[in-house]
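hey so i finally got around to running the thing on that chain from the lab meeting. sorry it took forever, my laptop kept dying and i had to restart like 3 times. anyway pasting the input first so we r on the same page abt which one it is
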Amino acid sequence: MLVVVGLVVLSRVGMSFAMDALNIHLKKEPVEIRRGLADVPRILGQWEAVGDDQRLSEEFIEELGTDQFLTRSYEHADGRFLQLHLAYYTGMIDAVPHVPDRCLVATGGFDLEQLPENLPLNINQPTWKKVDDSWFEAGIEDPLTGRITDVFIPSDDLSLRTSSFIRSDQPGTVLWGGYFFVANGKFAATPESVKRLAFDPSQKMAYYCKVQLVTQLKRRQDRSEFVDASREFLELLLPYLMRSLPDWRSLSAALESS
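ok and heres what got predicted. didnt touch it at all, straight out
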């Protein structure tokens, strides 16, 4: 028995040594969010928040899997409407992210009309400066002090995973939903791709933030209206969102130099 116990201990020590030598991290360290998601401004260009931020019950928060979230509705000056939902996860990543094409059908009473499709947003904000192959730099002005804060935005392509939904009791209207993730300083469009980023064995830390937009349109209107509104809104939102999320550029540089 002592021999068996000794072999088990040696195998665990050997595996741990091998994982360290190969820079493999199966257990991820959490990364604290820098600012609460509610710090996203209630006015973004011509988009202005309407009503109070949505409050969730303790049961729903437990189901969501995080207490770092924001659900807020915005209306454009021309009458367009978007509901924004943000949810932040870190450390041990949820294996099944909550996304519209699953949750609206399973619990919302909707039928999926159009299967999810990843639609490139082609965001092109002229005020952002490309600093390298991975990052844009953007400046945010504090409305009270006038000070400029520099934030870094991933430069990889951003796609919105978009679906449409209908309900039998709401004929003539279509609910459009789209989402993507920011995970370890990169964009991801699908639950599968965000898990690959967050569970990258070479990364010691892990986080992801789901960014979800929903709107309701008349049936005669096509998805391009939703995609165009999402693009316009996200160009304004992203600098403030990245101000709240971990500064992955600095974290990565610190890990490489340690």
